[in-house]
Design a protein that fits this description.
four-stranded mixed beta sheet
Length: 305
Amino acid sequence: MRRARPVLLLAAVAVVALVACRRPPAADPAYAAEIGTAWALRETRLASESGWLTLVALHWLTPGENPFGSDPALPLSLEAPGIPARAGAFVLGPDGAVRLAVDAGAPVTVDGAPPTGATLATDRDGKPSVVEVGRVRLTVLDRGGKLAVRARDPESPRRREFRGIERFPVDPSLRVEGTFEPYDAPREIEVPSAQGPAQKSLAPGLVRFTIGGKERTLEPTVESPDDDTLFFVFGDATNGTETYGAGRFLYATAPKAGPSKVVLDFNLAQNPPCAFTPYATCPLVMPRNVLPERVEAGEKVPAGH
């Protein structure tokens, strides 16, 4: 055993040296402060009354009545004070419209007023109708023509218990400048979703950049040809261990026109909503957007995943 001590000592020194080599370079204080401000804003939005942590239910509608209330046996069961066993039903008609049928005496409003039975606006219409029962707010989602009802509770356990997001240290070397290579015209692609049907998106081109000494590309999507933000869903070799298994999100400012520079700051990589709640609909990583490197920057996997 005594002869093994020098070997163990050398191994320990090697591990320490390896860890030291992996430490990110020191960030400029102004840049570190800028990233810190962005992180704080991200957590504030996540934990706000309209943030992802307030989600408490998601139900995909079927034709006819879809009852809701506090009864656990209902398709849309809600746990909050003041909600009757059955408060009413979201009615999906043959025309694809959703209307609200309210049970007598149930404390339900639509956009702050008594229900009228009118068609409910979905999130595809811009501003969805807000159905309130007790403190819970419900809205209708449209995902590629498939409709669902999502519920939010400002007093949800996830929101009350939120203690922030763990992240990698700021690494200025993972703020990289790439080149946007536009397609002749934006391409419509189909992006799989963690909940519900695949979604149609527009891919305007590729961003080519260098990371870890290797040239890589990522394909972003945009909401419209005039969108000024590039949206990336990417994977890397940390997924499933330090980071969320289904990948992370990254946003970048879109170039004005033609080939031009794009800044990808992986220190701002963030978890998708599905990392925080099972009631979100999230796009999944396309195979072409999986990086073989470990991107040790941005948000780590939330506690409990």
